[in-house]
Design goal:
It is a single chain. The chain is mainly α. It has six helices and two strands, in the order ββαααααα. The protein has a two-stranded antiparallel ribbon with strand order 1-2. A hairpin with a 5-residue loop joins strand 1 and strand 2. The longest helix is centred in the middle third of the chain and has 29 residues. The protein is elongated and about 50 Å long.
């Protein structure tokens, strides 16, 4: 709708990146992690109020950095760092489920609302890096701008 938040990625054949998208993610994803920690109450250590949202911010920063890197090796490095940090965040999400349930639940077992909310949040992260890899922002497997924009709109 506007060109104010657009950036041209010259190494992708002048693909236009909508900068509002990563800004939106940095504003919402950390809040979702914070909500899980608060939902867990006193059973979740207080330091996670800072650590879990920070994981989200740093993961998204690596993702954005991967977008603006001028060559494939640097893109891969940023992408890999983001994936490794995501795995660490999921590990702590798993620990929170165990803490919340006093050891009765885990990622693969249990029925609490806390566990369900955690699994829902974790599952929402998976489509984004997959679509990124296919888009011109990532490795350019799909280069049709309309398909890319519809894909991002669907994911958001």
């Amino acid at each position: 709708l506007t060109d104010v938040d657009d950036a041209i990625l010259p190494e992708t054949g002048d693909f236009t990146l909508d900068l509002s998208r990563p800004i939106e993610w940095v504003m919402t994803c950390p809040l979702m992690q914070l909500t899980l920690v608060l939902m867990g109450g006193a059973k979740i250590p207080e330091y996670r109020r800072y650590v879990m949202p920070l994981f989200s911010v740093v993961i998204l920063t690596f993702g954005f950095s991967s977008t603006i890197m001028p060559n494939i090796p640097l893109k891969l490095l940023c992408y890999a760092c983001g994936v490794l940090l995501f795995c660490t965040m999921v590990f702590f999400n798993r620990v929170q489920i165990i803490e919340y349930s006093s050891g009765y639940e885990g990622l693969l077992s249990g029925d609490s609302e806390f566990r369900k909310a955690t699994l829902l949040l974790i599952s929402t992260w998976f489509p984004f890096p997959a679509w990124f890899v296919m888009s011109p922002e990532g490795f350019g497997i799909i280069d049709n701008v309309l398909i890319i924009q519809v894909g991002w709109a669907f994911l958001n």
